[in-house]
Amino acid sequence: MKNLDSKSHVRGESIYLDDIPLIQGTLYACVFDSAVAHGTLRSINTADAEKSEGVMRVVTAKDLIGENQIGGVVPDEPLLADGEVHFQGMPIAIVLAESEELARKAVRKITADIEPLEPVTDPRVAAANGDLIVPPKKFIMGDCEEAFANCEHVFSGRTEQNGQEHLYIETQGAYAIPIENSGLKVYSSTQGPTAVQRAVCRVTGLPMHQVEVDVQRLGGGFGGKEDQANAWASICAVGAQLTKRPVKYALHRMEDMRMTGKRHPYSSDYKIGLNKDLKIIAYEVTFYQNAGASADLSPPVLERTLFHATNSYFIPNVTATAYSCRTNLPPNTAFRGFGGPQGMFVIEAAIVHAAEKLGVSAADIQRNNLIDDGDEFPYGQKAESDAITSWTQGDAEFNFAHLQKEADGFNDESKYFKKGVAMMPVCFGISFTKTPMNQARSLVHVYTDGSVAVSTGAVEMGQGVNTKIAQVAAKVFGLPIDKIKIHTTNTLRIANTSPTAASAAADLNGKATQMACETIRDRLFEVAKGLVEAEAVENLSLEDGHVYRNGDRTSLDWKSLVMDAHLQRVNLSEHAHYATPGINFDWTTAKGHPFAYHVYGTAIVGVTVDCLRGRYEVDYVKCCHDFGSSMNTSVDNGQIEGGIVQGLGWMTMEEVVYDDAGKLRSNALSTYKVPDIHSVPKEIAILPLQTNRENLAVLNSKAVGEPPLMYGMGAYFAIRNAIKAFTECSPEFDAPFTPEKVLMNLYSE
Ligand code: MTE
Ligand code: HPA
Ligand code: MOS
Fold first, then answer.
1. Using CA atoms, how far apart are residues 745 and 652, in angstroms rounded to an integer?
2. If 163 and its partner were Cys, which of 123, 401, 650, 656 is the partner (CB 3.0–4.6 Å)?
3. Cα 483 to ligand 2 centroid, rounded to whole Å
């Protein structure tokens, strides 16, 4: 079944924040932001802006009625700079004007007197200065020191990974409308309506029941709107509170790129030890996360880096240490994979390093160390592993050895084009690593005409979660999908939501929806039992809009049943709550069972490098992927294809560039290159993993949102192999592999 939004998307009828019909009297916000990455804010001159045409008011930190604070995890993030600036792009003042153009014009008339201080952009420098967001975190299993002493082979090195711009097609934005008795209704392009509600309440001083947040859908979030939608909603809310008029702000692309954080760059040190049978015995890794100027989601992102530090491998002795380093960049934030990919890159690099030194294929080391059932992850959870099955099934279908041979044969013949192949196994834990976040609610109403309205805490951002939730309701009620309508995500209907993140939205909200629908269905069965003279409700079922008795269709249809139930005063609404069972994590011991389950998969990635120009093409990504029982293969295949291309982009052409002064140089689409249709792999093959395992997700499906991104990382190592087929060299592990870097390595000798 197609994504329910596909028709309205194609027709341009889908409603995004900027399409919401305007209310008379709406003011437009625009932010004046810091041009200096680090400095003392001596004064702000807003006099000219205030006199500028159409300006209603200019707001600075001193005008806030509530707290000047939006930090969710750590309270270290002022909404508006006060006394100091910490990054280029930090909001200092808000202009509220009669039109967008007039607001932008007035912003240009504001000046700030900032005395510059030395900016820090390198996480290792920040760590050396002791400037950490939170104390270091550590995972320990076994005894690395002793193990290294007994290893046949020990290799150590360093890796660098850059950030990634989210580039959601819809930029950040919000629209706040005053309602009676000082309340506010806020439309926001956010993955976390409750996060927005909390931030708005903090800066306005309002209690949460006075603030309604509503989300129709996002034109993409990719993690960038898990926490970072809060600022813009807060800005609009403050404006609406102070002027008693509706306030809207939809950021321009360059504002968005300059003022928001990105995927975290990491710099890391590794040491890997193997025995003579190529078993990895010990692994020591230290991560320096470039957090940016405030915490945002950096601490949980850092934690997930540790959780995925050993990717799909079982390593008996592990010491993994992680530092979240405060720098003068915009606060970096969630991005598909949430720190997991950064952890996996380092172990993959370490394996490649060992393989090259030992003269074996990296695939041999990878294959030899895949985690098996019952093996323990460094955080204490025992694996129910499909790492080996996904490798074996993928290899059986796609034949790595043959693809490698094909590439070798090509390379023997071709002087200036070289092919490279790499295996990329992935193991990704599903659940928010912070256990309390793994809960969701669903509100289901059956109306007397037989139509069904569902509200959940899930936010639709293109990933198809609404389609999946509608499928759940349709299945329980035995109805066609057009009888189900998924409504906006709204904090009045569904309170205290977790953000739509961690790939878990369909799992959590789908389960809650299933529970709510089943409760209503069971009440309807009690009514139907009398109407169709069934002996027991167990003999009844709902299919094709009819009641079935002992598998036979009765004349009682859904609509009549619903009306009858209503006339008998049976409750046709339900609000259900789901909390993932069996998960826990204890940071005092750094052990527990944080994940409901893991998603496993293995990809083979092939590339061709043009060794004269340094350009490359991805020939194929062939993966064996664990969907569980996919609820919707067209949505899930879309998630795989999109995730792979986003992962490829991060590892190859996308390059976030800040200069030493902390200014974003890749600040527009002309200087930040993302994959287009020409850079998509020529072939993406998807083989669903065959497994009979039960899992905790809805209708035995599995989460699919983030894991496929990490297949794209295989392209990095495939390019490296192609370069090595051209020239003897040992490129540094410094991602992304832009064509420039490829060229430099091709001719480094
Ligand atoms: N797919 C689309 N089209 N747009 C998005 O913004 N976000 C990704 C992924 N797939 C995203 C997407 C991220 S970061 C996550 S965590 C999941 O979707 C969240 O949705 P889910 O929990 O429903 O999978
Ligand atoms: N994943 C994604 N988002 C999150 C998580 C997580 O594990 N924890 C908090 N926010
Ligand atoms: Mo996704 S990074 O968990 O929003």
1. 14
2. 656
3. 33
Burial of 481 (0-12, 13-18, 19+ CB in 10 A): middle
Residue 54 CB-density burial (10 A; 0-12 exposed, 13-18 middle, 19+ buried): middle
**CA separation for the pair 674, 687 (Å, rounded):** 27
Q: Which residues contact 349 (CB under 8 A, 6 or more apart)?
A: 157, 159, 270, 733
Burial of 603 (C-beta count, 10 Å sphere; 0-12/13-18/19+): buried
333 lines ligand 2 (CB under 6 A): no
User: What DSSP state is assigned to residue 383?
Assistant: P
Q: Which residue's CA lies nearest to atom 18 of ligand 1? A: 705
Give the nearest ligand 3 atom to 222 CA.
4
Residue 695 has a pLDDT of 82
Both structure tokens of 707: 């894991």
Ligand at minimal distance from the CA of 301 is 2
Which one-letter amino acid corresponds to residue 554?
T
Instruction: Check pocket membership of 463 for ligand 3, CB cut-off 6 A.
Output: no
381, two tokens: 């959870």
CA of 368 to the centre of ligand 3 (A): 31
- Please list the residues that pair with 324 across neighbouring strands: 289
User: Cβ of 409: how many Cβ atoms within 10 Å?
Assistant: 11
User: What's the CA gap between 489 and 458, in Å, rounded?
Assistant: 7
Return the closest-CA partner of residue 599 out of 457, 711, 515, 685: 711
Could you tell me the two tokens for 329?
Answer: 């960049």
pLDDT tens for each residue of 569-625: 999 999 999 999 999 999 999 999 999 999 999 999 999 999 999 999 999 999 999
The pLDDT tens digits of the residues spanning 262-306 come to 999 999 999 999 999 999 999 999 999 999 999 999 999 999 999
Q: What is the mean pLDDT of residues 519-523?
A: 98
Cβ-based burial of 734 (10 A; exposed 0-12, middle 13-18, buried ≥19):
middle
Distances (CA, A) of 169 to 189, 221, 251, 678: 12, 9, 12, 19
Cβ of 264 closer than 6 Å to ligand 3, yes or no, is no
What is the per-residue pLDDT across 102-154, written as a single tens digit (0 to 9) for each?
A: 999 999 999 999 999 999 999 999 999 999 999 999 999 999 999 999 999 99
Asked if residue 501 has its Cβ within 6 Å of ligand 2, the reply is: yes
Gap between the terminal Cα atoms of the chain: 54
| Ligand 3 proximity of 348 Cβ (cutoff 6 Å) | no
Ligand 1, pocket-test mutation among 191, 438, 442, 503, most atoms within 8 A of CB: 503
Closest ligand by atom to 3 CA: 1
Phi, psi angles (nearest 5°) of residue 215: -130, 120
Q: Give the atom of ligand 3 at the shortest distance from the alpha carbon of 224.
A: 4
- CA–centroid distance, 399 to ligand 2, in Å, is 35
Rounded Cα gap, residues 537 and 521, in angstroms: 10
CB 49 within 8 A of CB 58: yes
* pLDDT per position as a tens digit, 440-474: 999 999 999 999 999 999 999 999 999 999 999 99
Q: Which of 170, 171, 463 best tests ligand 1's pocket when mutated (most atoms within 8 Å of CB)? A: 463
Q: Ligand 3 pocket test: pick from 264, 296, 336, 463 the residue with the most ligand atoms within 8 Å of its Cβ.
A: 336
C-alpha to C-alpha distance for 332 and 291, rounded to whole angstroms: 5
DSSP 247-278: EEEE--HHHHHHHS--SPPEEEEEEEEE-TTS
By annotation, the residues acting in catalysis are 706
